[in-house]
């Protein structure tokens, strides 16, 4: 029997018998709204009370976009190498291994092909959980190969960006991916195959300076951070106060850099509506 029971307050459970509430049962949005995790997942990871779009990864986007979550992953086993022997607070090789172990991902992007509302679609989706969604040689290569697959099979290509920018541990190799992916997208345009770019939170740095803003249409989720340098860097560089909502998707849309903003619940329908229109197909 426990030596201490708070019977005067009606608490009969001994300290050693108490159980903590498991983590992840509840989610609190930035506006303070609290939602059950299961309800959040059913609502496509959008807070039902305030519409806040929680960051999700390739697994969740594939579930949303592909019919019955059926798809074939392309180039699934390509992994990055520490070509430069880079070391900062830890070895890049160790950082890669830690990221793989923690996220169960091979790198910061996954590419898949499947049916979306009955039509073939190639989706290339970034994962922010893997070293901040940073763009290295593998990210560029997988995007390039995904575009090649689209060209070969004449399938529309969707890029979902979620990145902190170029991967500094790969230095110039990372920066080369801006030109590489942009050149591949030019080939996709020459083949007259639709390219849709979806910017999610955050889309920054080298991704914004290349493939993220080169879509036939550029779309975004509500409230996403979209920009080249972060707001703090811009403010420190210019020495000026920034407008309210600076670099949110709504601000970027207002200034003409996006075609439209779509809530996650409407993403699949709007994406396929655009593809039907541009390919002159009957609207489903």
Automatic annotation (TrEMBL):
PROSITE patterns, alphabetized: COA_CT_NTER
Function as written in the Swiss-Prot or TrEMBL entry: Component of the acetyl coenzyme A carboxylase (ACC) complex. Biotin carboxylase (BC) catalyzes the carboxylation of biotin on its carrier protein (BCCP) and then the CO(2) group is transferred by the transcarboxylase to acetyl-CoA to form malonyl-CoA.
Family matches, as HAMAP family: AcetylCoA_CT_beta
Reactions this protein catalyses: N(6)-carboxybiotinyl-L-lysyl-[protein] + acetyl-CoA = N(6)-biotinyl-L-lysyl-[protein] + malonyl-CoA
Protein name as catalogued: Acetyl-coenzyme A carboxylase carboxyl transferase subunit beta
Organism taxonomic ancestry: Bacteria, Pseudomonadati, Bacteroidota, Flavobacteriia, Flavobacteriales
EC number in record: 2.1.3.15
GO cellular component: acetyl-CoA carboxylase complex
PANTHER family: ACETYL-COENZYME A CARBOXYLASE CARBOXYL TRANSFERASE SUBUNIT BETA, CHLOROPLASTIC
Domain CoA carboxyltransferase N-terminal: 24-284
């Amino acid at each position: 029997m426990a030596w201490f029971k708070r019977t005067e307050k009606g608490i009969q459970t001994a300290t050693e018998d108490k159980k903590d509430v498991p983590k992840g049962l509840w989610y609190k949005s930035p506006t303070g709204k609290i939602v059950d995790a299961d309800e959040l997942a059913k609502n496509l990871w959008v807070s039902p009370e305030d519409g806040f779009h929680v960051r999700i990864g390739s697994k969740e986007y594939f579930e949303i976009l592909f019919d019955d979550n059926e798809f074939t992953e392309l180039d699934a086993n390509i992994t990055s190498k520490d070509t430069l022997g880079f070391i900062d607070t830890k070895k890049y090789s160790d950082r890669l291994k830690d990221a793989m172990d923690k996220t169960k991902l091979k790198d910061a992007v996954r590419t898949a092909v499947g049916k979306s509302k009955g039509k073939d679609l190639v989706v290339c989706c970034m994962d922010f959980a893997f070293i901040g969604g940073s763009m290295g040689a593998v990210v560029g290569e997988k995007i390039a190969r995904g575009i090649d697959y689209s060209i070969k099979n004449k399938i529309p290509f969707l890029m979902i960006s979620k990145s902190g920018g170029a991967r500094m541990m790969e230095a110039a190799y990372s920066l080369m991916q801006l030109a590489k992916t942009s050149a591949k997208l030019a080939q996709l345009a020459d083949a007259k195959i639709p390219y849709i770019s979806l910017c999610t939170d955050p889309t920054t740095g080298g991704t914004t300076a290349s493939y993220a803003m080169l879509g036939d249409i550029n779309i975004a989720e509500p409230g996403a951070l979209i920009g080249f340098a972060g707001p703090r860097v811009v403010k420190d560089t210019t020495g000026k106060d920034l407008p309210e909502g600076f670099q949110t998707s709504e601000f970027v849309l207002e200034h003409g850099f996006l075609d439209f903003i779509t809530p996650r619940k409407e993403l699949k329908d709007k994406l396929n509506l655009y593809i039907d229109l541009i390919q002159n197909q009957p609207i489903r």
